[in-house]
Each structure stands twice: as structure tokens, then as C-alpha cells.
Amino acid sequence: MKIIKKVNSFNEINKASNFKNVSSVSNVDAKNQNNILRIIKGALFSIIISVIGLLIFAIVLTNSNVSEDVIPIVIIVISNLSILIGSIICNKRIEKNGIVNGMLVGLIYLIIIYFASSIAIKSFNFNLKSVIMILCSILSGTIGGIIGVNLKK
Predict the structure, then answer these.
(1) What per-residue confidence (pLDDT) applies to 66?
(2) CB–CB of 116/81 below 8 Å?
(3) If DSSP codes are grouped into helix, strand and coil, which group holds residue 87?
(4) Is the dihedral of CA 64, 68, 119, 105 positive or negative?
(5) Residues 6+ positions from 150 with CB-CB distance below 8 Å
(6) Is-contact 78 54, C-beta < 8 A?
């Protein structure tokens, strides 16, 4: 009789611990979904910052004697600063895996920008400047992720 009670109490403990494991798994899934949404928001925030920065540059370019040779460099700088800021903001709330999440912000940004460019510009091509842009974007996203994770709330 004592053996049966001990087995029953062991089963109850086992069921309770399994329930906690199931609830912790659902918490992990919800946390992962929130992290994915934050990464996407970081990339979209980066795009918004880029649009604002490029509009300001277009106004400066129109109203001054700035050479058109600097356009590709300024585009790369504005894009990378935008990715850096978006990655910092995104990773400040995630608080872990800054390198990976920062890279993802940069990659999502690039995918959206290159997809939009290929639709908008019929003669869009992939060249050395594109490769430099990809490498710089991943690097700035990574740096932003590291900074964002290490910022205190």
C-alpha cells in the first residue's frame, strides 16, 4: 500500500514538472516571436531613418555645389548609420544574441532595399558597390547589436 502511494505521489510530481516544462516552452516560443518582431521593427526603423537621411542629402545636393561623385559614399554611410541605430534599438530590448540579431537587422534591411530597387529600377544590377554595401551593412548591424545588448535600460 505504501509503495502504491509513493508511486502515485511520484506520478503527481512528474505531471506537475511536465506542466511547468510545457509552460516554459510556450514562454520561450512567445519570447522568440517577440524577438523576431523586434528584429523586423529594427529593420523597418532603419529604412525610415535611411529615407529621412537620403531626403536631407537630396535637399543638400540640390541646393549646393556638392559633387555627384560623393553620392555612392553618402548612400553607404547613411544606410550603415541607419542599420546601426536600428540594430541598437532592436537589441536593447532583446538583451542577448546581439551579434546574430544585429546581422539579421542588416540582412532584412538589405533584402527589402534590394527587392525595392530591383522593382523600381529596371536596369538594377549587382556590382562591387553592392558587395561593399552588403559587407558594411552586416558589419554595422553586428556592431549595433553588440552595443544594443550592452546598453543598460
Answers:
(1) 84
(2) no
(3) helix
(4) negative
(5) 98
(6) yes
Question: What is the rounded distance in angstroms from the CA atom of residue 86 to the CA atom of residue 65?
Answer: 31
Distance CA 145, CA 45 (A): 14
- pTM of full prediction above 0.70: yes
For the chain, which ranges sit under pLDDT 50? 7, 19-23
CA–CA distances in Å: residue 80 to residues 26, 88, 131: 36, 12, 13
pLDDT score at 50? 95
Gap between the Cα atoms of 110 and 43, Å rounded: 9
Alpha-carbon distance of 134 to 49, in angstroms, equals 18
- Exposure pattern of 60-74 as b/e (b: 16+ CB <10 Å)? ebeeeeeeeeeeeee
Q: Give the model confidence (pLDDT) of 100-127 as tens digits.
A: 989 999 999 999 988 888 888 877 777 8
Q: What is the DSSP string of 23-61?
A: HHHHHHHHHHHHHHHHHHHHHHHHHHHHHHHHHHHHHHH
Give start and end residues of each alpha helix (H) in 69-97.
Answer: 71-94
Sign of CA dihedral 31, 34, 36, 42: negative
